[in-house]
Structures are given as C-alpha cells and as structure tokens.
Description:
Elements lengths: L9 H23 L17 H17 L8 H17 L26
Amino acid sequence: xxxxxxxxxxxxxxxxxxxxxxxxxxxxxxxxxxxxxxxxxxxxxxxxxxxxxxxxxxxxxxxxxxxxxxxxxxxxxxxxxxxxxxxxxxxxxxxxxxxxxxxxxxxxxxxxxxxxx
Length: 117
C-alpha cells in the first residue's frame, strides 16, 4: 500500500503530486468539475492548498481501489456515492479550502492562530 501524500517529502512527494495532478487534470476536472461560482469555488492552483491535496489524494486512492476489476460491478457506484460527493462538497463549499479563490486566481488561505499549549 502506498503511503499517504502527507507522509511523503522530497522527490516522493513531488512524484505523488505529479501523478495526482494527471488524474485531476485528465479525469476529475473534465468529467466531474462543474461551473465555478462563489457558491462552488475551485482554485486553478489547487495543489497550493494542503487540505485540497490531502482530500484529492484520498479521492484518487479510493478511485484506484474502487475502479479496479476486483472491486466488482458496484465499485464505481460506491465511489461516486461514498467518496466523490462528500469530497467535492467539502472542497467546493463556500467556506472550504478554496474560499477566497476566484475563477483564474489563487488566494492563499490564512492558517488560524493557535495559542501555545
């Protein structure tokens, strides 16, 4: 089993991000991404949002698991129901990781302050 992208660094992280980007660019965006609006934002530089990378990588890992022949006939339907919908709703929520990003522009998300323990 491949390690989760947040556990990778250096060349391994870059390769995992490259593979994820191929899947997002060639499958997720053209098939599943709907029009961008203030109510459903999307960042053209989604890879600069660590939360988006984590969620999309998990979605991609589930895609690989649920669309392989061993997943059976219900695998893709289960992927749509259990993974695609919740992840896209979370990412594209107006207060989600892309809040502040507009069509064609990226705005870094400010990390909330945390008092020392």
